[in-house]
Amino acid sequence: MPAGEAILAAVLAWVVAAHVIGHPAPVFAPSAALVVLAEARGRRLRQSIEIVLGVAAGVLVADLGVQALGPGTVTIAVVLLLTVGPMIAFGASTTLIVQAAISAIYLVAVAEPRIDVMQWRCLDALIGGALALAVSQLVVARNPLAPLVREAQRTFTGLAGLLDTVDEALRDGDRSAADDALRRARAARTRVERLQTEVLAAGEAVGLRVGRRRYVHQVRQVEATAAELDRVVDNIWVLARNAVTLIRLDVPVPVELGRAFGALSAAIRAAGEALATDLTGTDDPQQHAGLADHTALEAVRIAAKLLESEPALPLTMIIGQIRATAIDLLRGVGHDDDVLDRVDEAVGLTVP
Fold first, then answer.
1. CA-CA distance, 304 to 14, in Å (whole number)?
2. At 109, phi and psi to the nearest 5?
3. Are 181 and 162 in contact (CB under 8 A)?
4. What is the DSSP-derived secondary structure letter of residue 13?
5. pLDDT for the residue 164
6. Backbone angles phi, psi at 162, to 5 degrees
7. d(CA 320, CA 239)
8. Residue among 171, 150, 155, 153 nearest 262 (CA)
């Protein structure tokens, strides 16, 4: 699919620039299309804008440099200094800097800096970037949110399954399974990173469609949820690490801890369904969000009762992480106003 997108965008850019616009040598149009498609989805609109700006800046500086100094090695050095230096100083992106530098070198060393050259090159950049964006959206033309929904479901299901694995390892006293869960917990951050990438891609997709812009708020909500999931992953990693310690020290594991893990796992799955149904509109997201709220607080209540028996330190750490996971999860589904008070009340703490 990426190869097909690249070929189609490059060919279309050449055809439009050469045969529709009439540029006799539109080499930069397909090049610009390929540069844009090389960027990850969600960052391609910015990439297109930066290419056009970089080309314009490089051509302008090259034109002024040649007029003042004439063509030659010294001119190339001066033009690059005046083009790249200020951009680096002001923190411009790599794409912007590279495109400006390439355009400047091309016009000093190969072409004569004329106003028509500047116009052609900027137009090529615009054509290549625009067609790359158009082609990249063909895959998600019918439903731009579908990849985001799938990735969100995979992310939440994966995190819930990881909790189930930790629970099974504790119940069976299986240290190898607990070690495996710990390794998976370390790698779970990549799930959240993939979700964040899909958020950017969905935001770009709905932003480019006038009729789809009503989904912008929903995409932003998923972005906020993904930020909280980062913390949930950290909490699950600490849970897995303390599970390994419990098994290694042969500390008895109460049956109630498994119930707490089960409730927390159910809360994560319900939170994932709340997010997915909010994006698709196939069900009532508030129903799933309410279930996530209920089961997360139930996990906290079950775990808090274990503190009455003065458990071992690793078990106390697990109980604390169950509370922290519930807080971050509920914040992720939009319950941010009074979540601390409600979780502390479930633990049995007095809220003033």
1. 66
2. -90, -30
3. yes
4. H
5. 92
6. -65, -40
7. 9
8. 171
Handedness of CA 44, 208, 55, 31 (dihedral sign): positive
Pair of tokens at residue 337: 């106003």
In this structure, how many other beta carbons lie within 10 angstroms of the beta carbon of residue 115?
9
CA angle centred on 165, ends 160 and 167, rounded to 5°:
95
Tell me if 124 sits within 8 A of 26, measured CB to CB: yes
78 by Cβ neighbours in 10 Å (0-12 / 13-18 / 19+) ranks as middle
Q: What pLDDT is attached to residue 226?
A: 81
pLDDT at position 212 is 59
Whether 225 and 289 have beta carbons less than 8 Å apart is answered as: no
Tokens of 68: 């003042």
Structure confidence at residue 295 (pLDDT): 93
| b/e map 304-338, b = 16+ CB within 10 Å | bebeeeebeebbebbbbbbbbbbbbbbbbbbbeee
d(C-alpha 265, C-alpha 157), whole Å: 9
Tokens 């930069």 -> residue: 28
Instruction: Tell me the C-alpha to C-alpha distance, in Å, between residue 249 and each of 109, 120, 173, 242.
Output: 71, 72, 10, 10
CA 233 to chain CA centroid, nearest Å: 15
What's the confidence (pLDDT) of residue 225? Answer: 81
Q: What is the mean pLDDT of each run of 10 residues along the chain (352 residues)?
A: 82 88 80 75 68 72 77 84 84 77 76 58 79 74 75 90 91 89 86 83 68 67 81 89 88 88 93 86 83 91 86 86 89 74 74 54
Measured N-to-C along each axis, helices 115-136 and 44-69 cross at an angle, to the nearest 10 degrees, of 170
Which helix (H) or strand (E) segment holds residue 116: the answer is helix 115-136
Distance CA 341, CA 327 (A): 10
CB atoms within 10 A of CB 123: 18
Note if the pTM is more than 0.90: no
Residue type, 118: M
Where do the DSSP E strands lie in the chain?
Answer: none
Is the separation of the CB atoms in 300 and 289 below 8 Å?
Answer: no
